[in-house]
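Appendix B. Chain record.
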Amino acid sequence: MKNLTAALALATLALLPKTSYAWFDICNTKSNGANMYVTYAYYQPSTTRIHTDACGSFYGVLSPQYYTAWKNTGWWNLAPNQCARVYGSALRNTWGYVYAWISDGSSLTGANTPFKVSSAAFGIDQYVNGPYGSCNGECIGQTGQGLCSSPAPTYWTVNTLPVYQGNYNNLTLNIN
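C-alpha coordinates predicted for this chain:
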Protein backbone atom coordinates (compact mmCIF):
# COMPACT_ATOMS: atom_id res chain seq x y z
CA MET A 1 0.00 0.00 0.00
CA LYS A 2 2.91 2.38 0.75
CA ASN A 3 4.32 1.82 -2.74
CA LEU A 4 0.95 2.60 -4.33
CA THR A 5 0.59 5.80 -2.28
CA ALA A 6 4.12 6.91 -3.22
CA ALA A 7 3.48 6.17 -6.90
CA LEU A 8 0.23 8.15 -6.85
CA ALA A 9 1.97 11.09 -5.15
CA LEU A 10 4.73 11.11 -7.78
CA ALA A 11 2.19 10.87 -10.61
CA THR A 12 0.26 13.80 -9.15
CA LEU A 13 3.43 15.91 -8.98
CA ALA A 14 4.26 15.06 -12.58
CA LEU A 15 0.84 16.34 -13.71
CA LEU A 16 1.08 19.71 -11.96
CA PRO A 17 1.72 22.68 -14.28
CA LYS A 18 5.37 23.62 -14.48
CA THR A 19 6.29 27.21 -13.74
CA SER A 20 9.16 28.56 -15.79
CA TYR A 21 11.89 30.41 -13.93
CA ALA A 22 14.35 30.75 -16.77
CA TRP A 23 16.94 33.49 -17.06
CA PHE A 24 19.30 34.84 -19.71
CA ASP A 25 22.98 35.48 -18.91
CA ILE A 26 25.64 36.97 -21.17
CA CYS A 27 29.27 36.14 -20.40
CA ASN A 28 32.54 37.63 -21.64
CA THR A 29 34.70 34.61 -22.38
CA LYS A 30 37.19 36.43 -24.66
CA SER A 31 40.63 34.92 -24.17
CA ASN A 32 42.46 38.10 -25.22
CA GLY A 33 41.38 40.16 -22.19
CA ALA A 34 38.94 42.40 -24.09
CA ASN A 35 36.16 44.20 -22.22
CA MET A 36 32.67 44.59 -23.64
CA TYR A 37 29.40 46.44 -23.21
CA VAL A 38 26.27 44.43 -23.97
CA THR A 39 22.54 45.00 -24.53
CA TYR A 40 19.58 42.62 -24.56
CA ALA A 41 16.25 43.03 -26.39
CA TYR A 42 13.06 41.00 -26.24
CA TYR A 43 9.48 41.19 -27.49
CA GLN A 44 6.65 42.06 -25.14
CA PRO A 45 3.38 41.28 -26.96
CA SER A 46 0.92 42.62 -24.42
CA THR A 47 1.87 45.42 -22.06
CA THR A 48 -0.38 48.15 -20.76
CA ARG A 49 2.50 50.63 -20.33
CA ILE A 50 5.11 52.01 -22.72
CA HIS A 51 7.70 54.66 -21.93
CA THR A 52 7.57 57.76 -24.10
CA ASP A 53 10.56 59.90 -23.18
CA ALA A 54 13.91 60.01 -21.43
CA CYS A 55 12.40 61.27 -18.19
CA GLY A 56 10.26 58.23 -17.47
CA SER A 57 6.92 59.49 -18.82
CA PHE A 58 4.69 56.78 -20.17
CA TYR A 59 1.44 55.99 -21.89
CA GLY A 60 -0.74 53.65 -19.93
CA VAL A 61 -3.93 51.88 -20.93
CA LEU A 62 -6.18 49.53 -19.04
CA SER A 63 -6.73 46.00 -20.24
CA PRO A 64 -8.20 44.65 -22.45
CA GLN A 65 -6.26 47.20 -24.55
CA TYR A 66 -2.57 46.43 -24.96
CA TYR A 67 0.56 47.70 -26.62
CA THR A 68 3.12 45.54 -28.35
CA ALA A 69 6.71 46.63 -27.84
CA TRP A 70 10.30 45.60 -28.23
CA LYS A 71 12.12 46.18 -24.94
CA ASN A 72 15.85 46.84 -25.25
CA THR A 73 18.07 47.42 -22.20
CA GLY A 74 21.75 48.06 -21.60
CA TRP A 75 24.59 48.66 -20.91
CA TRP A 76 26.25 45.90 -18.92
CA ASN A 77 30.02 46.35 -18.70
CA LEU A 78 31.68 42.93 -18.72
CA ALA A 79 35.32 42.46 -17.85
CA PRO A 80 36.98 39.21 -18.97
CA ASN A 81 35.37 36.12 -17.41
CA GLN A 82 32.44 38.17 -16.08
CA CYS A 83 28.72 37.51 -16.67
CA ALA A 84 25.57 39.62 -16.37
CA ARG A 85 22.01 38.40 -15.86
CA VAL A 86 20.28 40.53 -18.50
CA TYR A 87 16.85 38.97 -18.05
CA GLY A 88 15.94 37.42 -14.74
CA SER A 89 12.29 36.53 -15.00
CA ALA A 90 10.78 33.63 -16.92
CA LEU A 91 11.71 33.69 -20.61
CA ARG A 92 8.54 33.91 -22.65
CA ASN A 93 9.98 34.58 -26.10
CA THR A 94 11.47 32.19 -28.58
CA TRP A 95 14.09 34.79 -29.55
CA GLY A 96 16.23 37.32 -27.70
CA TYR A 97 18.59 39.84 -29.32
CA VAL A 98 22.10 40.74 -28.15
CA TYR A 99 24.50 43.49 -29.12
CA ALA A 100 28.07 43.67 -27.85
CA TRP A 101 30.54 46.52 -28.24
CA ILE A 102 33.89 44.74 -27.76
CA SER A 103 37.10 46.65 -26.99
CA ASP A 104 39.21 44.52 -29.36
CA GLY A 105 37.09 45.63 -32.35
CA SER A 106 35.51 42.24 -32.97
CA SER A 107 31.76 41.82 -33.44
CA LEU A 108 29.09 39.16 -33.09
CA THR A 109 28.92 37.00 -36.20
CA GLY A 110 25.36 36.82 -37.54
CA ALA A 111 24.24 40.12 -35.97
CA ASN A 112 21.65 41.38 -38.47
CA THR A 113 18.59 42.65 -36.57
CA PRO A 114 18.56 46.43 -35.99
CA PHE A 115 17.72 48.01 -32.64
CA LYS A 116 18.25 51.51 -31.31
CA VAL A 117 20.60 52.04 -28.38
CA SER A 118 21.58 55.07 -26.32
CA SER A 119 24.84 56.54 -25.11
CA ALA A 120 23.59 56.34 -21.49
CA ALA A 121 22.33 53.40 -19.45
CA PHE A 122 18.95 52.76 -20.99
CA GLY A 123 15.72 50.87 -21.24
CA ILE A 124 14.07 51.62 -24.58
CA ASP A 125 10.54 50.69 -25.69
CA GLN A 126 10.57 50.70 -29.49
CA TYR A 127 8.71 49.41 -32.55
CA VAL A 128 5.49 50.02 -30.66
CA ASN A 129 1.87 49.83 -31.73
CA GLY A 130 -1.28 49.83 -29.70
CA PRO A 131 -4.59 51.50 -29.12
CA TYR A 132 -3.28 54.92 -30.20
CA GLY A 133 -2.08 53.73 -33.60
CA SER A 134 1.18 52.46 -35.02
CA CYS A 135 4.57 54.16 -35.00
CA ASN A 136 5.83 52.23 -38.04
CA GLY A 137 9.04 51.26 -36.25
CA GLU A 138 9.98 54.83 -35.34
CA CYS A 139 8.58 55.27 -31.82
CA ILE A 140 11.12 55.30 -29.05
CA GLY A 141 10.52 55.75 -25.37
CA GLN A 142 13.24 55.55 -22.79
CA THR A 143 13.74 55.12 -19.08
CA GLY A 144 16.85 54.85 -17.00
CA GLN A 145 19.17 56.61 -14.59
CA GLY A 146 20.37 60.10 -15.40
CA LEU A 147 18.68 60.38 -18.76
CA CYS A 148 16.97 63.71 -18.04
CA SER A 149 20.29 65.39 -17.36
CA SER A 150 22.18 67.51 -19.81
CA PRO A 151 23.59 66.74 -22.28
CA ALA A 152 20.78 64.59 -23.66
CA PRO A 153 21.75 61.06 -24.63
CA THR A 154 22.46 60.25 -28.25
CA TYR A 155 20.84 57.36 -30.11
CA TRP A 156 22.08 55.14 -32.90
CA THR A 157 21.12 51.86 -34.54
CA VAL A 158 23.14 48.67 -34.05
CA ASN A 159 22.75 45.19 -35.49
CA THR A 160 21.94 42.61 -32.84
CA LEU A 161 22.46 38.87 -32.82
CA PRO A 162 19.23 36.81 -32.79
CA VAL A 163 19.56 34.17 -30.06
CA TYR A 164 17.18 31.21 -30.02
CA GLN A 165 15.90 30.89 -26.46
CA GLY A 166 14.16 27.60 -27.17
CA ASN A 167 11.80 26.15 -24.67
CA TYR A 168 12.29 28.85 -22.04
CA ASN A 169 15.22 27.12 -20.38
CA ASN A 170 17.99 28.92 -18.54
CA LEU A 171 20.35 30.27 -21.15
CA THR A 172 23.93 31.53 -21.06
CA LEU A 173 25.45 33.18 -24.12
CA ASN A 174 29.24 33.05 -24.06
CA ILE A 175 30.88 35.72 -26.22
CA ASN A 176 34.39 34.60 -27.16
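Further analysis of this model is presented in Appendix C.
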